[in-house]
């Protein structure tokens, strides 16, 4: 379970740092168009690292899936977060690429992308809390 805790923590850290550290700083420092270009260039690495950490964290939690309702809920949250993240480069990014920035289509797909990322930002730490609470509960 320690491996899971580290992997899920790293996964959450990558999600939060990129979203609220890197992207926010880029948009605060550069003009909007330039910040968007740089952020877009960083997306493949961001999603690759986040998805790989998500797969590893989920694999580490998988053997504990029958250890109680909290472990099962944690696993479900992780799978949903992983699916949400994987959908962005697989489905949303190609749809987004078909629309010029500032257009209605761009705003729609960008909003969907942000919503999926936000879900993952919240689901991964929630899964971690559930899984770790289950562990503490068993040790009592």
List the keywords.
88% helix; elongated; 0% strand; 140 residues
Sequence-ordered SSE layout with sheet pairings:
Elements: H1 2-29, H2 32-61, H3 69-97, H4 104-139
Helix pairs in contact: 1-2, 1-4, 2-3, 3-4
What does the model show?
The chain has 140 residues and is an all-alpha fold. The chain has one domain (2-139). The protein is 88% helix and 0% strand. It has four helices and no strands. It has helices at residues 2-29, 32-61, 69-97, 104-139.
Give a brief rundown of this model.
By secondary structure, the protein is an all-alpha fold.
Structural classification: mainly alpha
Q: Which regions contain 5 or more consecutive residues with pLDDT less than 50?
A: none
Instruction: Please report which band the strand proportion falls in: under 5%, 5-15%, 15-25%, 25-35%, 35-45% or over 45%.
Output: under 5%
Mean pLDDT: 92
Helix content: over 70%
Number of strands: 0
Spatial gap, N to C terminus? 16 Å
Radius of gyration: 17 Å
Please outline the major beta sheet. Answer: none
Please give the count of helices: 4
Into how many domains do the coordinates divide? Answer: 1
């Amino acid at each position: 379970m320690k491996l899971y805790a580290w992997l899920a923590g790293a996964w959450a850290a990558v999600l939060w740092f990129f979203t609220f550290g890197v992207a926010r700083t880029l948009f605060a420092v550069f003009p909007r168009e330039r910040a968007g270009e740089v952020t877009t260039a960083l997306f493949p690495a961001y999603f690759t690292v986040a998805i790989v950490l998500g797969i590893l964290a989920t694999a580490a939690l998988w053997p504990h899936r029958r250890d109680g309702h909290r472990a099962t809920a944690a696993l479900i949250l992780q799978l949903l977060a992983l699916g949400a993240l994987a959908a962005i480069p697989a489905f949303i990014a190609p749809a987004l690429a078909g629309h010029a920035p500032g257009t209605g289509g761009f705003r729609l797909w960008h909003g969907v992308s942000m919503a999926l990322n936000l879900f993952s930002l919240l689901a991964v730490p929630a899964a971690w809390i559930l899984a770790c609470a289950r562990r503490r509960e068993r040790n009592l």
